[in-house]
Every structure is written in structure tokens, then in C-alpha cells.
């Protein structure tokens, strides 16, 4: 264990239900059972916290100290709060602080691994473009934005449906227009952006939300056409929208925000029989995480990762374009309703806006995949430790510092 492993600090503890007082109980997670691993971890953490290793304080006490620390700093939050007030902000901010502290302690130059800790604070009289805005999560975001006096451009596959959705949003007292846009068509994307800027003179937010699913099918039976369709919409469509608006946000040179809709699949459990969908949403996570560090300060970015939400996504196929094989029959029997899908869509928009204000990069409207994300994280860290272990001089090869040095060398050459 080295003190540079920031994720380790939070990954060590798993939630084990709630005590009588409602507070979460924490315990060492199953992935961290090896005694040498625990001793090393506790030693390093105690050195950080109280300046003494476990041998001088007793293992039990050391572990209890860390447990208390974790409980009071990391998990003292309201995990099932869907209201959007989000005390879970700490879950995001704490690793940021730790990461900076750890790098400083290791003797690295002043390092700011995450460039921002605040997002857009006020949506009043801002203008937002929402792709896939006619239905489900996109439409709920539109309603939440209108509730905050933000003007809206609804973009989706069908003009009539866009107009109808925009009319409903206008009734909330803001200005809203609908604009047909297939995110797999670059010309449509450029026309959408033109229309938005022509109408309002500025655009401040992009909710890059259009997405499709092809149902549940095992990987070996997945039709190539479906895989390509999923990737064209969920990844390339998302990417192309993002790049078009980013270019314009940079030119506009005012505060802007991009919220890319990914999924709980992106961070947690790769759900069986959803290979194409999982892979496309992991790709959205991959590039959005990079944008977070690459963008100029006036543009912030977030990743919306909903759980299974009651929307029309199970019937995406009915809207599949001819170039991807044409529409598929509706699936009335697909379990999209509340009997199977646990979450109602109505809380997602408000939650998303609250977390943008909080500066959260990861936006989780639902709690159901938290343990799955933890499971994956634990396994990754355990594999590092079991297979390689920290060499005494690992800091010399710290990936972030290595990358920055390489970048600096390249800049010097250019
Ligand atoms: N519902 C869930 O359980 C869930 C979970 C995690 C993530 N998501 C993601 O949330 C986003 C919104 O999905 P939803 O659940 O509201 O589904 P939905 O089907 O109700 O809404 C998606 C919208 O995207 C539009 N769309 C599809 N292809 C398009 C294209 N090429 N160009 C423009 N618009 C297009 C559809 O017409 C539809 O209006 C998607 O990215 C989806 O992957 C949904």
C-alpha cells in the first residue's frame, strides 16, 4: 500500500446495512481480507491520520480508527436521498481533497488532478439543448430546466413529436423550440446548433442524452446491425454532438456545461446480455472522463448514470432508422413498466440539475448499482496488489506525472 492510492482509502470499506440510529455501518470489504494487505493499509493510513503505524497502536484499534474515520467522512451521508439536495457531494469532494493531499505528501509538485469542483450554479435565462428530449429522461430534464427558468431546445428524431414536447415545455413559462435531429447525422447536428443559436443568440448547456437499447441478447447472438446501430447512436452520436457544441462553446467563451448521459452500466456491473449497450456506455464514460481534464475552465462536464428507469427505451427499435435496418416491431410485453423497472423517471431531471450545481462529475440518480461499482473497484485494486505490489520507487513512474512529463517534453519540442 502506498499513500498515493486514493481509491483504496474509500474502497476499503463496504456498507453493511444501517444501525438503529439510521447511520450506515461499515466494515472491511471482502476484497480486502488478506491480513498483510490490511496491516499495510492500516499502517499507511494511520501514518496519514495520526502519524503512527498500526504496530504502535494495536491492529484492532487501528482498524476501528479507520472505520470511524471512514464513517464520519465518507459515509455520513443520506444514501437514499433522491431529492436532489445531495449530501453525497462529499463522496465526490473527499477523493479530490485526498488526491491532492496524497500527491503533496509524496513530494509531487502542486497537483490538481480534477480541474473543477463547481458546476453551473444558476440556470435562469440560460439555453439548453437536449437530444432525445421528446421522451423519458430527456423530457424530464427539459421539465426540470423549465422549472428553473431555463429555455429549451428539444431535439429528437421526429419533428412533430419535438414540437409537441416543446409546446408542453413552453406552457411552463419559458421559451422552447423543437428541432428534428438524428444524432447519427452530422449535418443534422450542425443544423440543430445553428437553429439554437439563431433563435436564442447563445446556448449554455448541452444534455447529450439520445440513446437506444437493443433488448437483452447474448453476445454470440447479437446481430451486427444492432451492435452498429447502438454504437452509432450511443457513442458516435454522443461524441459528434459533444464536439459540435464544444467547438461553439469555446468560440462563445462563456460559462457552459455538457452533461453526457451514460448509464450505471458504465461504472458498475456489466449487465449480462447487454454487451453492445454496456460497451457503448463504457465508451461514453471513457471520453467524458478525459474531457473533464482537457476542457478550458469555462466549460464543465458531467456524466449522468441512471439506473433502470421507467421510460420507452425498451422500444427503441420501433424508431430504428432505415440505414440501420429499419423499425422493429413494438415489444408490448417488454417489461418497461413499474412492475419491472424500479425507478420512476420523474426524479431524474431535478436530481441531475442539483448535481450539476454541486459540481458532481458522476451523477447517480439511483443507488442500486453502488455496491456493484464497489465490487469492481475492489477487484481491480486487489488484482494490482496481488500481481504487482508497489515497488519502493513507484512514484517515479506515477502514470499521471509520467503523462505530464511526456506532454511537457512534447510541448518543448513543438
Ligand atoms: N431508461 C433506463 O433505464 C436508462 C438507464 C441508463 C441510461 N439510460 C440512458 O438514458 C438516455 C435516455 O433514454 P430513455 O431511457 O429516456 O429512453 P427513451 O427511449 O424514452 O428516450 C430516448 C430518446 O432518444 C431518441 N433517440 C433515439 N435515437 C436517436 C437519434 N439517432 N437521434 C436523436 N434522438 C434519438 C428517442 O427517439 C427517444 O425520444 C439514453 O442515453 C439511455 O441509454 C436509460
Short description, anyone?
The chain is an alpha/beta fold and about 425 residues long. About 45% of the residues lie in helices and about 10% in strands. The strands form 2 sheets. Strands 5-4-3-6-7-8-9 form a 7-stranded parallel sheet, sandwiched between helices. A two-stranded antiparallel sheet has the order 1-2.
Order of helices and strands: HEEHHHEHEHEHEHEHHEHEHH
By CATH reckoning, the class of the largest domain would read: Alpha Beta
Strand content: 5-15%
CATH homologous superfamily label of the largest domain: NAD(P)-binding Rossmann-like Domain
| Straight-line distance between termini | 38 Å
Q: How many structural domains can be distinguished in the coordinates?
A: 2
Strand order of the largest sheet: 5-4-3-6-7-8-9
- Average residue pLDDT: 78
* Total DSSP E strands: 9
Q: What is the CATH topology of the largest domain?
A: Rossmann fold
Helix content: 40-55%
CATH-level-2 architecture of the largest domain: 3-Layer(aba) Sandwich
What ions, cofactors and ligands are bound? nicotinamide-adenine-dinucleotide
Keywords:
414 residues, alpha/beta, Rossmann fold, 2 domains, two-stranded antiparallel ribbon, 9 strands, binds nicotinamide-adenine-dinucleotide
Descriptive notes:
By secondary structure, the chain is of the alpha/beta class. The protein has two domains: 6-114 and 371-390, no CATH class; 127-366, NAD(P)-binding Rossmann-like Domain (Rossmann fold, 3-Layer(aba) Sandwich), CATH 3.40.50. The chain has 13 helices and nine strands. The protein has helices at 6-11, 35-49, 59-73, 89-105, 136-147, 159-170, 186-200, 224-252, 264-267, 275-294, 348-358, 370-387, 399-413; strands at residues 13-18, 24-28, 127-131, 151-156, 176-180, 205-208, 256-261, 299-304, 362-363. A seven-stranded parallel sheet has the order 5-4-3-6-7-8-9, with helices on both faces. Strand 3 (127-131), helix 5 and strand 4 (151-156) form a beta-alpha-beta unit. Helix 2 packs across helix 3 (59-73) and helix 8 packs parallel to helix 10. The longest helix is centred in the middle third of the chain and has 29 residues, at 224-252. It is globular. The chain starts with 5 loop residues before the first helix and ends with a helix. The relative contact order is 0.12. Mean pLDDT is 78; it is low at 1-35 and 49-95. The structure holds nicotinamide-adenine-dinucleotide. Nicotinamide-adenine-dinucleotide binds next to helix 5 and helix 8.
